[in-house]
Every structure is written in C-alpha cells, then in structure tokens.
Design goal:
Elements lengths: L24 H10 L4 H6 L6 H17 L8 H7 L5 H17 L8 H7 L5 H17 L1 H11 L5 H9 L11
Helix pairs in contact: 1-3, 3-5, 4-5, 5-7, 6-7, 7-8, 7-9, 8-9
C-alpha cells in the first residue's frame, strides 16, 4: 500500500534500552550519567558469574567515580561488598572508586574504611597499593576518621597513610606506626 507523501509512518516511541554489558565503558558511563536509574543495572553486573563482566563493571564504576563520584554515594555499601570478589581486577577497580568517593565525600568514608583496610593484606600487590592510595587520599581530607579506624581495628597503619595523617597535625599513638 502506498502512503501519501505527507503521512508519517507510525512508529513506537519507546526506545529499546541496550543492556549495559553490551556497551563500551565510556558508553556505559554516558548512559548512567544520562539515566541515573541504570546505575542499579551496572551494580548488578558486579554479581555476574562471568569474571570478565564483573571486571568491566568494576572498571566502569572506577571511571564513573572520576567524573561523577556523587552518583556512587548511595551505592557505597554495594561497592564495599564487591571488595571481597575473587578477581583482583574487580577488587582494585572498586578500591580505586571508593577512594575517589571517599576523597570527595569524606563523611561517607567511615562506611567503607574497614573494607579498604582489609585489602591492605590482600595477596595482590596492585590491590594493596590502590587500597593504601585510597586511604591516603581519604586521610588527606579527614585524617581523624582514618586514625580512629586504625586505632580501633588494632591494625598497623601503613607508612604513607601515617605520613598523610601526620601532615594534618594529628598525633599518632605508638601502635599506629609501622
């Protein structure tokens, strides 16, 4: 059937949403920024059976934390749960993301300091380094929270974290040094 020129072909107005697991990291960041409700879909990818999917989701969250850390504040506890993943890539990406969130929103840091502290004893060297770096960044903004965490947990404070706490003028106890 031929339609006259002026008539439009009726189309469905609803756009199909592409699963985030099929997109590139930069595309996922844009999608989550444009549609904040898709953040829960991204967070759910951290629980996928496939290690590659979990790694890509964690890397995307790390990239999202660089440009829009405020979007991750409400899902900090879900990110903390991901710190126990069996993939080192997931652990180091999430520790980086939590470090960025803790730097911008230091009052939220007390919610996940124990997760970052446990990564200081990880078997992977990169995970340990990024966890330490995240703690240094948080200590630069809120040294009291970091000092109190290490004193209450009876863990030794890494040298770089102790240096950052001392720069703020706080005094460390003898057990807080390494």
């Amino acid at each position: 059937m031929i339609r006259p020129r002026g008539q439009r072909i009726p189309r469905s107005r609803k756009k199909r949403t592409v699963p985030l697991s099929n997109l590139r990291t930069s595309e996922v960041v844009r999608a989550v920024v444009a549609h904040p409700r898709r953040l829960s879909e991204l967070i759910n990818l951290l629980e996928d059976r496939d290690r590659t999917v979990r790694g890509r989701a964690a890397a995307t969250l790390a990239r999202l934390s660089e440009s829009h850390p405020g979007r991750l504040v409400r899902v900090v506890m879900r990110l903390k749960e991901g710190l126990t993943d069996d993939s080192a890539y997931v652990r180091w990406s999430l520790s980086y993301a939590l470090g960025r969130v803790g730097t911008i929103f230091p009052n939220q840091a007390s919610r996940f300091l124990d997760g970052l502290g446990s990564l200081l004893e990880d078997e992977n060297k990169v995970v340990r380094a990024l966890a330490c770096r995240a703690l240094v960044r948080i200590a630069a903004r809120k040294p009291l929270i970091v000092r109190d965490y290490f004193e209450s947990s009876k863990r030794e404070m890494p040298v770089t974290v102790a240096r950052s706490v001392r720069k703020s003028g706080l005094v460390l106890s003898k057990s807080g040094k390494r």
